[in-house]
Amino acid sequence: VQLQASGGGLVQAGGSLRLSCAASGRTFSYNDNVMGWFRQDLGKEREFVARISSSGGSTYYGDSVKGRFTISRDNAKKTVDLQMNSLRPEDTAVYYCAAGSRWSTNWSSYSYWGQGTLVTVSS
Q1: Hey, what's the torsion of the CAs at 83, 96, 1, 109, to 10 degrees?
Q2: How far is the C-alpha of 36 from the C-alpha of 50, rounded, in Å?
Q3: Mean pLDDT on 76-86
Q4: SS3 sequence, the chain?
Q5: pLDDT tens across 86-114, in order?
């Protein structure tokens, strides 16, 4: 199973970025998995950002990104995206996509992880 995240970069505060994560693997049943995004800044704990149900019908966001970020998925393409608007310097972190079988905000509930993509928001 491989999750490949992309789309990170440097953006000014108030700007937008769109992260994408593509899943692959013959034994991986993408459509059966909850997909999530987490982030981690240097010296800080991994933080839940957003998750989306296997069908895409339900979403849930961390309080710090609610109203600014939107998670979506395309089960035909096996991708999950994170649209990030109104970015703030405190959003700076490495962003990870993850897949799991449980509807959870806890990173330990996710079995598969991408390599991470760096988002830097300048003030």
Answers
A1: -110
A2: 6
A3: 97
A4: CEEEEECCEEEECCCCEEEEEEEECCCCCHHHCEEEEEEECCCCCCEEEEEECCCCCCEEECCCCCCCEEEEEECCCCEEEEEECCCCHHHCEEEEEEEECCCCCCHHHEEEECCCEEEEEEC
A5: 999 999 999 999 999 899 999 999 999 99
Q: Which residue has the tokens 């999950």?
A: 80
Q: How far apart are CA 99 and CA 1, in angstroms?
A: 10
The closest of 35, 46, 36 to 93, measured between CA atoms, is: 46
Residue 119 tokens read as 């988002």
Residue 45 contacts by C-beta under 8 Å, 6 or more apart in sequence? none
pLDDT greater than 90 at residue 31: no
Q: Residues 6 or more apart from 10 whose CB is under 8 A from it?
A: 120, 121, 122
